[in-house]
Each structure stands twice: as C-alpha cells, then as structure tokens.
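Reviewers of the previous submission asked for a worked example of the structure-prediction workflow described in the proposal, so we include one complete record here. The input consisted solely of the amino acid sequence. No template or homolog information was supplied to the procedure at any stage.
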Amino acid sequence: MEWRDEGIILAVRPHGETSAIAEILTAGHGRCLGLVRGGRGRRLRPMLQPGNHVGCVWHARLEEHLGHFVLEPLHLQAGLIIDEPLRLLGVTSMTALAQLLPEREPHPKLFSALQVVLSAIDEDRIWPALLVRWEMGLLDELGFGLDLSTCAATGVNTDLVYVSPKTGRAVSREAGLPYHQRLFQLPGFLRGEGSGDDGDVMDGLRLTGYFLERHVFGPRAVDMPQARQMLQEKLGQRTH
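From that input alone, the workflow returned the following structure tokens.
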C-alpha cells in the first residue's frame, strides 16, 4: 500500500550503516514512522532535521509494517534557527511534545497549528505565545483540554483571569480573588486580548506545563522533555 502526504519532521534515529528511521507528523495520516534509505548520508541529512516541512510518500507491503519514506523538501527552516538558541529550543520542544500523539491517528488542526508556529519562528515577539496556544491544542487533542469559556464558580463569561489547577476551568476575577495564590493566571492572549508579552507567555507556559505534567508525563512516570524545561527557564530569564 502507498500514500502521499506532507509532514513535519519530529525525530530521526540511525538505522544500520546508512539509513535512518524518520518520525513525521503528517497532515492527513498523523504521526508516522518509516525507514529512509540513505537517511544518514550527506544529501538527505540536512532535510532530516526536526521542524523541517517535507513532502512524503510512504509505502509498505502491509499497513501494519514500518514502511519506507521517500521524502522531498518543502520548507527546510531547521537550518535557519540552528544559531538561534531560543528558537531552536522552541522547535525542539514542540517536536518532542508532538511525539506524545498516538501513532497513525490524524490530528489536522494540531498539524496546521504547528505550521503556523514554525512559519512565525523568526518573529520573537510572536512565536512564544503561539507555542503556548499550540500546547493548549495538544492538551485538547490528548483529551485533557482546558475549559476557558466560563467561570467555574459563577458561570459568567467575562473578566476571566484565573484557571483552577483542580478543574482546568477558568475563574473570574471576583470569584478567584480570595484564592488567587492557589490559582493560575490566565494570560490575556488566551482570552483574545493582545499577542502576549514575556510575562503572559510565562503564565501560559506554567499553565500548560502543569497540566501536561499532571495528565501526561506524571501518569507515564517520565520527565518533561529537556528542551521544554530549558525553554521555560530561558524565557523566564527574559522577564527579569
């Protein structure tokens, strides 16, 4: 069997002396793995970098087999950020987190959102907030989405400035003020107010990071990707 798609390189590992196994988040077929013949060679190695956008043909004798990828470059931006540590951490964090998705299960919205972040990766005032939005989408796709539509305590849909760590629901300023030290700040850009400064982005990363740890990494007894931890630390340094 065979299919054609486009995708974002998530990870690559060596296989044998010359080949590689590529893990790719595709638009229509979800997260897929496949053997790339010659993937360790000089010609293909630059293309097989996390964050690169490629066209791909996957083929195998049976659907359940690993299969082979034949790839072509569409937008190779990994080389453009190799000398930009913060951007590199952002891309590495997202590609690592995307590996949490079930294999071969389509997530077109998350794929499109990842493309949006990657297309803005050279805009340092924009992409960090987009990354937080992408992590919110990842939580939703994994079945742990937050409800930011109304206040958990009163049901109002205005002046929502907190998020409850217990329920993952928004809380209004009035209802949450007596307990604000135990609540997460809901950044303005997640309420549709502006693009988000560094302080807002840090609030967003703390929010998504908490629920990723609680629902995803904690139950699996694994650590948050190092790139995600370093990204939060580096962005936190910019706020001081």
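The chain is about 35% helix and 20% strand. We consider this example representative of the routine output the project will generate in years two and three.
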